Amino acid sequence: MSKLAINLLRWSNPWEEIETCIAAVLNSTFQDFILLYTENPHPTASSLEELVKIRFAADTRLRIRINDENTGYAGAHNQFFFETDNEFLMVLNPDAVLHPGFLAEILIAFENPFVGAATGKMVKPLQPPDQTRILDGTGIILYRTRRARERGQLDADHGQFDRSREVFGVSGTAAVFRKQALEEVKLGASEYFDHDFFAYWEDFDLSWRLRLAGYSCQYVPSAVVSHSRAVGVSPGGLIHFVRFVRHHRSFPVKIRRWSWRNHLLSIIKNDFGWCLVRDLPLIVGREVATLAFICLFMPDTLPAIPEFLRLLPSTLQKRRLIQQRRRIGSKEAARFIALR
């Protein structure tokens, strides 16, 4: 059995993206892996199954799965996690292109048995004329307001994030997980990512559960991946308010609803202890401000509220299970919330 299994999940991405992504994986310096190409059906985009078969038929490491229904990012990867017994499992987005040494470098992090997940240095594929790389992310960080974001996103890469270190969580763009750790934090028989989320914030939520189970998440700067992110932070943030509003209004409404809803559900499931009590005014203040912003500038996002309420009872059931299995105390939780 191969040491690593990779699941490349496609929904509507064009063939050129898929071809580039698969070719990059197959050309990795590390070769002890299998690559599963998975498709969730799209209402208008055609399947690329035959093109994948024709282009990569000679490579026995490639497998193909075409799903009958769209189970979202969470459901499709959960199927992969459940059915695959390799020591390490990786999720990969089609708009990510692994640099040749990515796999070899990121697996080194797992020599530490307490590492449950690892992420690499994500960079933008198109660089400015001076050739300075622009970062897409170097691991998820979590603020005391419980706002989560990709560390260093849109910063110029001057080597400031070139130290391997622990981070709060890993990005689902190109993340590697220890199979044993996934089995310890799953909810029910096969719910690793929260199936109710469908898409967005599953990586944040799963990272939090891994932390509560006593595992760490590691950032590996020598594992580099180019990523064309569809949804990210607004350049300049709130300082450029008009641009900030336009940026968020440009996202598809489903993405805005999933993002807001799933972020709140993650907090309800995983947060606990004195650090939650300490930070509660900050958390409530930010969420009230977010709600006001949505009401004023993106009211079509508000249907996320009944969706949130519908999922709240099952989320509370999951919270009880997560907190019963938790292996760390509030002091340790406060430490990883402060990681920068």
Question: How would you describe this structure to a colleague?
Answer:
- Helices cover 41% and strands 19% of the residues.
- The protein is α/β, with parallel strands linked by helices.
- It has a domain at 237-327.
- The strands form two sheets. Strands 1, 2, 3, 4, 5, 6, 7, 10, 11 and 12 form a ten-stranded mixed β-sheet that branches.
- A hairpin with a 5-residue loop joins strand 8 (140-142) and strand 9.
- The chain is globular and about 60 Å long.
- 37% of the residues are buried.
Can you give keywords for this protein?
340 residues; alpha/beta; 10-stranded mixed sheet; 19% strand
What's the Cα radius of gyration? 19 Å
Strand tally, please?
12
Strand composition percent: 15-25%
The biggest beta sheet is recorded as: 10 strands, mixed
Q: What's the shape?
A: globular
Number of helices: 11
User: What separation lies between the terminal Cα atoms?
Assistant: 37 Å
Class from helix and strand fractions: alpha/beta
Low-confidence stretches: none
Q: How are helices and strands ordered from N to C?
A: EHEHEHEEHEEEEEEHHEHHHHH
How much helix is in the residues?
A: 40-55%
What average pLDDT do the residues reach?
Answer: 93
Provide a quick synopsis of the model.
By secondary structure, the chain is an alpha/beta fold. The chain contains 11 helices and 12 strands.
Question: How are the SSEs placed, and which strands pair?
Answer:
Layout: E1 4-10, H1 15-26, E2 33-39, H2 49-56, E3 62-66, H3 72-83, E4 88-92, E5 96-98, H4 102-108, E6 115-123, E7 135-137, E8 140-142, E9 148-150, E10 165-167, E11 174-178, H5 179-185, H6 202-212, E12 216-227, H7 241-249, H8 253-270, H9 273-297, H10 304-325, H11 330-337
Parallel strand pairs: 1-2, 1-4, 2-3, 6-12
Antiparallel strand pairs: 4-11, 5-12, 6-7, 6-11, 8-9, 10-12
Helix pairs in contact: 1-2, 6-8, 8-10
